[in-house]
Amino acid sequence: MPDMNHLNHFFTDGTAAYLVAVAGDNSRMKDSVSKQSTMSSSYLPATTDSIAQALEAKTPAEAISILYRVLENPSSSAEALRIKEQAITKLSDLLRQENRAEDLRNLLTQLRPFFNLIPKAKTAKIVRGIIDAVAKIPGTSELQISLCQEMVQWTRAEKRTFLRQRVEARLASLLMENKEYSQALVLLSSLIKEVRRLDDKLLLVDIDLLESKLHFSLKNLPKAKASLTAARTAANAIYVPPAQQGTIDLQSGILHAEEKDYKTAYSYFFEAFEAFNALEDPRAVFSLKYMLLCKIMVSQADDVAGVISSKAGLQYVGPELDAMKAVADAHSKRSLKLFETALRDFKAQLEEDPIVHRHLSSLYDTLLEQNLCRLIEPFSRVEITHIAELIELPVDHVEKKLSQMILDKKFAGTLDQGAGCLVIFDDPKIDAIYLATLDTISNVGKVVDSLYVRSAKIMA
């Protein structure tokens, strides 16, 4: 027979163990419930108070965290959706300020379920806003291209034609900036046909303008002009925002400058400058810079200082205008040395600007010709080495330029390569009798032709 004390001890210990086990299970259940309640309450209510809380946050990281929690709210009421739209705008601004481009890209992917709850027009606005935010972060060109490609695939799957067309236009622009011209041209050619069929004039202006810039980059001037004309035609049918009109004028000026029509180009650059200046657009300084370039190219370099010191010009004083002023001074003094100094000191503003760089070679040739003409003016015969020393350039370079100027009839002369000299002739005087003789022969020819016609009629 078992000892009663032993049994009592057994039951007491068993009960205690059971109670401990039950207590442990209850504790784990409470922990689980508390974790679930914590997870369910990790998001914040989509209210104006939550937005205000984010604005009052001490650090950007804290504000970003709050806004993410607002977006996690599962509510889909009209008020909640409106608050979430505000949260997205503020969040994209904060991520841009913190240069978190990859987080902006991820945000765009995370918002795709949210886009199904709001109108397509608002979706397009949000998507373009986030892409613009990424564009403002330096060194993100490759990320922007991949982001646009992802969005194009998504818009195709979701059949969002309006948004897809605009993202494709942005993608073509990015490809052009990245010098991937063939891909950009293929994308634009298919897009432009689709947009013309839909008759979306505002987008058509953008695409035609982009196509003009692309053909200009490929040095296909006729097609660039044709695309610009198409953009102007579409723009005349609708109201065009001032910024877009300024872009059209800027492109017109660039194409006219390429054709050496600098006076017309100056007027277009001036129109573009006025439009951008009113909008405080950063492109205003480039329009002003190209205006000064036109002044220099038509040998009105003395006017450059006046334009810079004007009320409008003083707002944009900086390296861009200083570079053009240095070139203008070199041109006024006909000094190649000053010109080369300006190129060296303002390399980023002159040689790395594709528009200015296109005209630098012709400007250099003009300065070189003016300098050579000034140096050889007092001589009838001069050694080429002496001219090279005066102009501080290599002898073979000077000799090549002089022979080119003689062939182009810039002056009358010949190169005596045996003696290493340049012989300059006086300007030959044209005897008027030769011109009169040519006119007489021409008139006699006309008389003979008319007599032949009359005799043919009589014989008929």
Automatic annotation (TrEMBL):
Pfam families, per database record: PCI (PF01399), RPN6_C_helix (PF18503), RPN6_N (PF18055)
Gene Ontology cellular-component terms listed: proteasome complex
GO biological process, one term: protein catabolic process
Keyword hit for Phosphoprotein: no
PANTHER family in UniProt: 26S PROTEASOME NON-ATPASE REGULATORY SUBUNIT 11/COP9 SIGNALOSOME COMPLEX SUBUNIT 2
PROSITE patterns membership: PCI
Annotated PCI domain residues: 261-429
Keywords, comma-separated and alphabetical: Proteasome
Family of the protein in this entry: Belongs to the proteasome subunit S9 family.
Protein name stated in the entry: PCI domain-containing protein
Lineage of the organism: Eukaryota, Viridiplantae, Streptophyta, Embryophyta, Tracheophyta
